[in-house]
Amino acid sequence: MFHIVLILFLQLDEAENNIALEIQRLDSAENAACQVVEKAFEEAVRLLDIRRKSYVAQIKETAAAKQEKLREQIELIEKEKVKVRESCDGLEYQVEVLQSFPNIKFTTTSEFENVCYGKTNRKLFK
Question: CA 29 to CA 23: how far, in whole Å?
């Protein structure tokens, strides 16, 4: 009987050792699998960050180009405003001349402009 108990204890010890080894292999496999997952996620995050930076750079580049075009349009508008203002100033002077001398008749627009800007010797009154 003692011999049977001893065999039983040896088998139980062997079973316990096998289970302990299986636990160690499971822990090792768990750690390896977790490392694979961590590396995969780190790579995915790295690739996403590269993509994010690329998109942000494209957005900034596009916005800068559009802003430059809009600034150019503002410059053109300002130049046109100056031209219109200068034209209006000239017209105001011409209207003042016409109002000052209602009896004067001009044969052409250029003759009128020459008189307005002092480019002729024509006498205003006959």
Answer: 10
